[in-house]
Amino acid sequence: MDIYKSKIxxxxxxxxxxxxxxxxxxxEGHTINxxxxxxxxxxxxxxGSVKKSAKSIDSGIKDLQKSVKNLNDQLKF
Length: 77
Known about the structure:
Helices cover 42% and strands 21% of the residues. It has 77 residues and is α+β, with helices and mostly antiparallel strands.
């Protein structure tokens, strides 16, 4: 699972139209055009919080997968 491909909607600061973006687009600081008013929206990862959270979630998922595999291996006879 790649958390950076997860999609969210953000409202345009001008017209409030919802715009679909990925967490990766936010983490990388992309600029998009609003689907409503066509104005440019600069995606800002304030304090790197999206990138930090995505790394933490990815790490947690990997740890969970590893634990499930270990448990599964222990249950095999």
